[in-house]
Amino acid sequence: MDIETIYRKYFHDVFLYIRALSGNESLSEEITQETFMKVIKNIEQFDGRKDIRAWLFTIAKNTYYRYCRRNRIFVGEDFMETLQDTSPGVVDQIVIDETVQRVKHYADLLPEPYRKIFHLRIYGNLSFEQIGNCCHKSAGWARVTYHRARRMIQKELGQEELSNGKD
After folding, report:
1. Most buried one in 33, 41, 106, 137, CB count within 10 A?
2. Residue 146's pLDDT band (cuts 50, 70, 90)
3. HEC-encoded secondary structure of 87-116
4. How much is the pTM?
5. Range 137-146 average pLDDT
């Protein structure tokens, strides 16, 4: 598969993955472009044994994390701006956004390989087979690791709600 086909076929998927990680659309565009520049330079290193999307997502994730470390930034939403409108639809969306942010927060605290597997499954939308191939493991290993990661996050969310209820 030539680079132009890869770009057209997977650009949007990579962009959505980075946007899910960063929460920032313009940063996601920049990181996605940088990812494909790296792909162009390193396409000969792709041996075809892994799924191309898993390879692209790995490059994108590493590019994003390198960007964050290099710039010493925490990428997040400006939550105060959304609080100005308190109509029911906006309040519901704020609650959903808060929940998503809490899940993302706890997912980022997971130890490896749980964090990587959770991100690939949720943000990368990869199958367990693709995740297993990406990690040189079986699909069953990927499935078990993902479900353990989910349980860890659910446990943290449950403890958070218990501690909030005691106030």
Report:
1. 106
2. very high
3. CHHHHHHHHHHHHHHHHHHHHHHCCCCHHH
4. 0.47
5. 94
